[in-house]
């Protein structure tokens, strides 16, 4: 396994990218440039934090009770859900949201963009266990560009001779003032599956506000979403391509208590997930030799 020292020699960038080993033994890339700071765990290619220098608070939320442990997902940040979203269609013993977020990835490139942003590209490392769960020839890469905006590009290349179907999401947790005080615009008129209300299909009327547990998969939409946060006097824009589903999720009290790692007693009130996805009927067929890329760009604006 590559060490933090080896990674620093090969991919470190003076003053911008430093790799370190966490107390739990996982390797984390710390990114800092004149535009923003971020951190990314190589397990799961899991971006844990992002804060533009223009913002007094982080934009990406990480639970204060988040734990870094081998083979375990991290609560908060941007988990990579792949090659399936939600429960596996046939195997109840397979992990929810796929295995990409809990296995090692390798750094394959680092660099500085012309505008001064920092770029890291990682590739998922397959093993016998992952191949047993998903026996297809594929190359999964994630490019993260950290600057005044955060851009993430999740690329699935079919390197085999047979077509396959994936569902996926960048499961982004955003830092907000309070779940009862924010709203999400951009999805008015869209159909959504309500996973709390018995998987009924509904149509969104106006902006989304929150008074209870919410778990919705909006389908057939490539629209930009905006989190309006009057208390923090900012809005967060979520612009995407290669994605036709948007998931909006907050666990509320009872589920957050059961989860146990949301930052008790009320850490869940300071986060909201708006996920750019391809789920349910928007699952993507990747033909042999082809590549599919889901791209999301996040921007925070002061009100």
Describe this structure in words.
This protein has 303 residues and is mainly beta. The protein has one domain: Distorted Sandwich (Beta-galactosidase, Chain A, domain 5), CATH 2.70.98. It has three helices and 22 strands. The strands form four sheets. Strands 5, 11, 12, 14, 15, 16, 19 and 20 form an eight-stranded antiparallel sheet that branches. It has an eight-stranded antiparallel sheet with strand order 6-7-8-9-22-18-17-13, with no helix packed on it. A four-stranded antiparallel sheet has the order 1-2-3-4. The chain is globular, with a radius of gyration of 18 Å. It starts with a helix and ends with a strand.
List keywords for this structure.
303 residues, Beta-galactosidase, Chain A, domain 5, eight-stranded antiparallel β-sheet, globular
Give the structure's gist in a few sentences.
The chain has 303 residues and is mainly β. 7% of the residues lie in helices and 42% in strands. It is globular.
Explain the layout of strands and helices.
Elements: H1 4-11, E1 17-21, E2 27-32, E3 36-41, E4 46-52, E5 80-81, E6 105-112, E7 118-124, H2 128-133, E8 138-146, E9 150-158, E10 164-166, E11 168-170, E12 173-175, E13 182-185, E14 191-194, E15 200-203, E16 214-218, E17 225-229, E18 234-241, E19 245-250, H3 252-259, E20 271-278, E21 284-286, E22 291-302
Antiparallel strand pairs: 1-2, 2-3, 3-4, 5-11, 6-7, 7-8, 8-9, 9-22, 10-21, 11-20, 12-20, 13-17, 14-15, 14-16, 16-19, 17-18, 18-22, 19-20
């Amino acid at each position: 396994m590559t060490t933090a020292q080896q990674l620093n020699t090969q991919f470190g960038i003076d003053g911008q990218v430093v790799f370190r080993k966490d107390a739990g033994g996982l390797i984390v890339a710390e990114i800092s440039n004149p535009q923003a700071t971020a951190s990314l765990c190589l397990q799961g290619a899991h971006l844990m934090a992002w804060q533009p220098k223009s913002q007094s608070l982080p934009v990406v939320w990480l639970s204060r009770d988040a734990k870094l442990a081998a083979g375990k997902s991290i609560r908060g940040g941007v988990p990579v859900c792949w090659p399936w979203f939600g429960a596996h269609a046939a195997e109840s013993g397979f992990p929810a949201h796929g295995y990409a977020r809990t296995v090692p990835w390798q750094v394959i490139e680092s660099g500085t963009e012309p505008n001064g942003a920092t770029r890291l590209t990682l590739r998922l490392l397959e093993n016998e266990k992952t191949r047993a769960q998903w026996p297809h020839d594929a190359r999964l890469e994630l490019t993260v560009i950290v600057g005044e905006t955060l851009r993430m590009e999740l690329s699935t290349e079919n390197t085999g001779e047979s077509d396959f179907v994936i569902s996926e999401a960048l499961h982004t947790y955003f830092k907000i003032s309070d779940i009862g005080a924010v709203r999400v615009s951009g999805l008015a008129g869209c159909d959504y599956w309500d996973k709390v209300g018995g998987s009924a299909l509904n149509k969104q009327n106006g902006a989304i506000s929150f008074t209870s547990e919410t778990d919705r998969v909006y389908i057939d939409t490539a629209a930009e979403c905006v989190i309006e946060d009057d208390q923090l006097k900012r809005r967060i824009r979520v612009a995407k391509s290669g994605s036709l589903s948007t998931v909006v999720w907050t666990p509320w009290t009872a589920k957050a208590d059961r989860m146990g790692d949301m930052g008790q007693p009320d850490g869940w009130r300071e986060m909201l997930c708006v996920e750019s996805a391809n789920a349910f009927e928007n699952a993507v067929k990747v033909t042999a030799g082809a590549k599919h890329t889901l791209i999301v760009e996040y921007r925070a604006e002061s009100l």
